[in-house]
Amino acid sequence: MDMLLCFVEIFSILCCCIIYYYHLQTKKASASEPTEWPVLGHLFGMFANIHRFHDWATDILAGGWHNFEARAGLTGIRFFITCDPSNVRHIFTSNFANYPKGDEYAEIFDVLGNGIFNADGESWRSQRAKAQMLMAGARFRAFAARSSRDKAEKSLLPLLAHAADTGARCDLHDLFLRLTFDVTCTLVFGVDTGCLSAGLPVIPFARAMDDVLETLFLRHIIPMSCWKLMYRLEVGTERKMAVARRTIDRFVAETIAKRRADMIRQGTSNSDDLLSSFISHDDDDTSNGNDVVDETDEFLRDTTVNLLLAGRDTSGSALSWFFYILSKNPRVEEKLLEELAPIAAQKGGDGGGMVIFDASELKNLVYLQAALSECLRLYPSVPFEHKAVAADDVLPSGHEMKAGDKVLVFSYSMGRMEGVWGKDCTEFLPERWITSEGKLRYEPSYKFFSFNAGPRTCLGKELAFVQLKTVAAAVMWNFAVEVVPGHAVEPKLSIILHMKNGLAVTVKRRATMASC
């Protein structure tokens, strides 16, 4: 026993010496050269900076010419972290086939099943073509615009009006996530969950999606063997994942069963939602003699969950950061109100009653588009993308990629690089998106990476802008939004750029709306 205690003491002292030595080395190292620790590699630095993960990565990339090679210690896993536009174009466009999502990505995002986000190759091409066909139709686009407008008018604005009249604080981030959850569920499932209804009820399905996003982020930095063991034992965050997955599967299965039953009873479906369209598309192909096996309940489950994740959290996050950054830039807000004023005047917006704008009325507003794009440059809803390397390759930056390496592309960091956006890269300047002729300036997707790039460019980009414009214009025209002084706004640990503490605000009716 005495020898065992002696060994433990010696081992403890040795560990302390090693840690102290590397602590000194870390203090000497610059932010662009994080210390590579024994056994853990760069994982120690990641965990030590987990509370500021996105800014930590940005500091490293800013000092490393937009690229950094990280190692995960004894696991042998190599991560290449980049925000270099030339590398992004190579990975996502020029040599697209060599950088699939990969098997590890599919394992991390197992909750998405075989849906479009996890799929590669022919499966991905087939799913994307089908989704693009259904989402590009004029009928669905009109349905999407109408759903966003109705939810803003009938749910969001009344809640904000109540807050303004009572002087109550509200969490705008929570309200936006509830709104986009309701709208996305309407578009995908044809179901309004009532998440944004009076009283702001807890919706188990919505809570489950939040738990999934948090766990998926941690899976990116925890060794796979560790989180898989946690998942099998259902401990820690993986316990929440298991519970969340059962909740999601139950909701989706019940919704699919109900929709199939309704369509059989009615003989057809007049609904414009994507679930009904997928089922109807299956029926049409079957009646034409085509051998279709895609639209099983499992396929429908995976497809709808993927589309829900794509639409709900990204738009809600973007709206939250937009109003946060507007609160710090009153000059921009004033210019936006000036741009909206002529439209509001035509709608009787100077004399009473709250104004809601149609998508067609906002379509050509240059400054509104520029302001939203500038917000997404600084606060992209998806702060990083994950890719695998199929075969050895050399990037435009000169870095050698080996088969099996992992690539993380940080869109959050790209928007903050002087070498990409200039010395004013950290400033919120919608004017950078406007030409001297007053037209919108085009920026390539490998530089403005908020909607991905290349063949995997986001299918819902235009739909997203319609929703962002509709909701943003309605809120800013009818209410003055002020962030509560002292409220800490920072990113949450999630694969979506959520706000950790929400966005606590007070709202006041605009002066022109005081009579309503």
UniProtKB/TrEMBL annotation:
Keywords: Heme, Iron, Membrane, Metal-binding, Monooxygenase, Oxidoreductase, Transmembrane, Transmembrane helix. Heme binds at C458. The chain crosses the membrane at residues 7-24. CDD domains: CYP86A (cd11064). GO terms for molecular function: heme binding; iron ion binding; monooxygenase activity; oxidoreductase activity, acting on paired donors, with incorporation or reduction of molecular oxygen. GO terms for biological process: lipid metabolic process. Its cofactor is heme. It comes from the Eukaryota. Belongs to the cytochrome P450 family. PANTHER family: CYTOCHROME P450. This is Cytochrome P450. The lineage of its organism: Eukaryota, Viridiplantae, Streptophyta, Embryophyta, Tracheophyta.
